[in-house]
Amino acid sequence: MLFVQQIEIEYRKNVRYANFAQARNAIKFYPVRINSDEIQQNVLFHSAFFYQDTNGMHNRGTKSRQFTESQLYDGKFNRSPFGKKIGVKPIGDNQYEVHFYGGFDKTAFVLRKDQYGRIVFNERNTYYDTGEWYYQFFVFNIVCCEKDNFKEKIFFNKNPDYEFNGMKYLRYC
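Predicted structure:
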């Protein structure tokens, strides 16, 4: 079984400085408040959304989705379940190849049973209606284990087996 968590922190230019970056970097995992009896599929995808401003970090909510392993890969990398940057390909029984796309497709790591991986990256985008810049900081936590090992704090491991850093230097305008 695969457990995936996405943490997304959106912020603006006025909080791009080091003291605010430390607060963003401190959020590496978040509790998954779902009962294990509710898990019916092979893959659980949990998302937590935050917004950071000069007053601090604000929780914008969470959501969880489930899907089958066959929805991860259909002959080419299907990044839609986890967004445009992350691809996961089953390569055996309880083994997954995790890819990161940051201008080129790269294998970030291969997870086997009872292993934990983390991908950290950032982006800069513009709002389509105003043209204003905004920034995003992402953390993807990925755990491969049996459903019986699921708990609310499944991602609360400060030292994953694998960590991939896709951080870019974002030239601030």
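Summary: Strands lie at 2-11, 43-53, 56-67, 86-92, 95-101, 105-111, 115-126, 133-144, 162-166.
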